Amino acid sequence: MAIKGRPAVAAFGGAGAVALLAAGCGIGGTGVLSAGESDTTVTITPASGTQRVAPDAVIKVTASGGKLAKVSVQGNKGSAVTGELAGNRKSWHSTRTMTPGATYTVSAQAKSGGKLRTVTSAFTVLTPAQTLSISDVTPNLPGEKVGVGMPIILHFDRPVADKAAVEKALHVSADKPVEGAWRWIGSDQVVYRTKTYWQPHQTVRFRADLAGVNAGGGVYGAADVAETITIGAAQVTTGDIGGHHMTVTRDGRKLRTVPFSAGNGETREFTTTSGVHLLMDKGNPVTMTSPGRQPGDPGYYQQVVDYAVRFSDSGEYVHSAPWSVGSQGSANVSHGCLNVSPSDAQWFYGIAQRGDVLNLTGTDREVEWNNGWSFWQLPFAKWKEGSALG
């Protein structure tokens, strides 16, 4: 916290009025009123010259004997500090936190005797020993269009102690708004999911007013972050694992029905998961290795596949499988992936967007809500329980 001292005070009046700018050492204190009933006294805290002001300190400006005409705050780095003027124009206070290490100048204008006078206060915000930054925002690929199920996933560079304070700084807006909520996935990751799918063909904007936020334990937000997300076409794929076919639609129109061969079901590991999945990423080629097994172990395999589109963290992909074309559409023989023909795989790979919906039914192995991006497996009321804001 900043050391307490006198605020910046200026007195406006007749020819004898003086402007007092305290070169003091802290925020808070009592303003010094000048003589004369017509004088206007403006008090700014933090005082001019204050060092090591807490990033979450509130800037306050008050006027005695007159009214404030305008208040502005300029900083040498970081985001602008916004504020709110009281209805009687007697006071103003900042409405957001300040960037650590920045120097700010507050300029307040007030009318006195029909003249507009200005008082200023310049101070420096402390640089904390530890800061909190957003290390990754997903999605964030340049020019990318994502599917209507796409979540917004934030990773922080350290555990967050005060999740509620950080969550309050996170904002999502859309051209076609829909209700949504954040859910914390551990101490350093938070995910935004909507109640219903995004409307297609629109822009979504994410903003984190993180600079200066007290994240707990002496850690303050380092900088603001903003991303613009483009929602593409509504591409939804539905598949019956027992029926060995999936149907792909775009904006409600059927594009193609694709025969596949899913997991053979001999073990839980080799059973394709049912439930609402999202397409997560894709690669061509991708090397697939049996999890938890070494060469020579029973069930070990290593296979290079083309046109692979991932839809879980447990190794499930839609991919090209020329070796099983004879079973596609009639039998499930894979290790859990959806094996499709080379031509269908190339086509699906070409249209796939991260965040597209893949809804599979037909097995008793339900995909876990936290397996990959299968967040739609949680009812929205349950999803919201993971918010730090209740």
From TrEMBL:
It comes from the Bacteria. One of its GO terms (molecular function) is peptidoglycan L,D-transpeptidase activity. One of its GO terms (biological process) is cell wall organization. The keyword Secreted does not apply. It comes from Actinomadura montaniterrae. PANTHER family: L,D-TRANSPEPTIDASE, L,D-TRANSPEPTIDASE YCIB-RELATED. This is L,D-transpeptidase. One of its GO terms (cellular component) is extracellular region. Keywords: Acyltransferase, Cell shape, Cell wall biogenesis/degradation, Peptidoglycan synthesis, Transferase.
